[in-house]
Amino acid sequence: MEAYRDQYATLFNNGRNVAVIGISVDADTTLASWAREEDFPIVFASDPGSKVGQLYGAYDAKNKVDNRSLYVVGPDGRIAYVTKPFKVLTPSAYTDLAAIVDSLAPPPRLDSAK
Predict the structure, then answer these.
(1) Dihedral angle at the C-alpha atoms of 72, 54, 65, 86, nearest 10 degrees?
(2) What pTM value is reported for the model?
């Protein structure tokens, strides 16, 4: 999650027209405390029964946790991109993610004719 935080401006256009939600089996109080301490600019949601993880195929029944799947939902409310698992240590994973976000919520163009 630190990589999302550290690359938030680049990956998610500083949150312009983008909502980032991290969903975990951790308790909501644990997530809220961690988010404050680590200064995360994203929203965290608690899924203690792994209902969301199971619905989206992100639940690892063997280890009883949601895996690091990543879903990008487009402005139309449909899933536009999925990667299971998201490879947090692979630079190209972030390049691919940024390209998808830019295609769905492009950064504003600078008008050089002013």
Answers:
(1) -30
(2) 0.69
Both structure tokens of 54: 């199971």
Which of 59, 109, 104, 67 has the alpha carbon at shortest distance from 85? 67
- Statement: 2-104 belongs to CATH 3.50.50.60: no
Q: How far apart are CA 80 and CA 33, in angstroms?
A: 31
How would residue 101 be classed by pLDDT, with cut points 50, 70 and 90? Answer: confident
Closest among 106, 51, 46 to 74, alpha carbons compared: 106
Sign of dihedral through CA atoms 55, 59, 65, 70? negative
| Tokens coding 68 | 């690091």
End-to-end CA gap in the chain: 39
